[in-house]
Amino acid sequence: MIFVTVGTQLPFPRLINYMARWAQTHGERVVLQTGDRSGFNGCETYRSLPGYQFGTFMTEARVIVSHAGIGSILATKAINKPIIVVPRRAKLSEHRNDHQLATAAALDGRAGLRVAWELDQIPAFLDGAIEPPEAELHPQFNQLVDRISTFVGA
Amino acid sequence: MVRVLAVSSGGGHWQQMRLLSHALGNVDIEYACSAHVGDLKVHRLPDCNMRTPMQLVAGVLAAWRLVYRVRPDVVISTGAAPGALALIIAKLLGHRTIWIDSIANAEQMSLSGRLTRRFSDLWMTQWEGVAEETGAVFAGSVL
């Protein structure tokens, strides 16, 4: 199963429409979380999902296709699933600015993560095997926590 | 025990806050979020952003009430605007403050982050390049 999620803040029709079309020509089950509409295109489609159901779809999926939101990236890492991210573009009115392009560029190359700069890169990523993300938290995580703990006095 | 108020928006901001705060040791934490997170113990704040002035006013009042009620030793925020407001008000009320700019801001400090600069006792980014450009503290990141 492929779970497509675009977050709760803004719709992302460019990605949703592309994945709905992909689903029509492939046998694999595709679940779409769209941010703006439910039930269309022959796919299981949800505007938004309560946390437990979001978690169920994340767990069932073999790969997650997502906007380049940190929430999605952290969520897939937490359950050891690969993610394909598509950055939203400000010039297409997909977000207020291009910070998702910057995030994607900065994270590109991490294990378990692929960046589809263009939509037509997605099928090759779906056909190939993507390794799972690194299980352990980055050593930089502990350094950040230490710095905060020291300041807080915990 | 140190009393911490952790304030953030939903989605990625919230997840970064949970990751970081769960790793903090011996602290008493109260959470506030501007999105529904399905946990009744989490204080709810109205959502706002820096581009909608009227909502900002409501955000300021809600943040002031929250900080006044919780009376934390330290306020921590991972963004965005509602967290920035709570942090600024906390500083004005004499509490210590930590800003951790979202890891989503890889190239420049967020607008909310820039506003919190003078009100943050510890003003952090999760990217080394942003630290070099802005003078923010870089110690590490959640990813």
Automatic annotation (TrEMBL), chain A:
InterPro entries attached to this UniProt entry: Glyco_trans_28_C
Keyword match Transferase: yes
Domain Glycosyl transferase family 28 C-terminal: 1-109
Signal peptide interval: none
GO function terms (MF aspect): hexosyltransferase activity
Superkingdom in the source lineage: Bacteria
Keywords, alphabetical: Transferase
Name assigned to this protein: Glycosyl transferase family 28
Organism of this sequence: Litoreibacter halocynthiae
Automatic annotation (TrEMBL), chain B:
Alphabetized InterPro entries for the sequence: Oligosacch_biosynth_Alg14 (IPR013969)
The species this protein was found in: Litoreibacter halocynthiae
Domain of life: Bacteria
Protein's GO biological process: dolichol-linked oligosaccharide biosynthetic process
UniProt-annotated location(s): Endoplasmic reticulum membrane
Topological category with respect to the lipid bilayer: Single-pass membrane protein
Keyword Transcription regulation: no
Transmembrane segments: none
Keywords linked to the UniProt accession: Endoplasmic reticulum, Membrane, Transmembrane, Transmembrane helix
Name by which UniProt lists this protein: Oligosaccharide biosynthesis protein Alg14
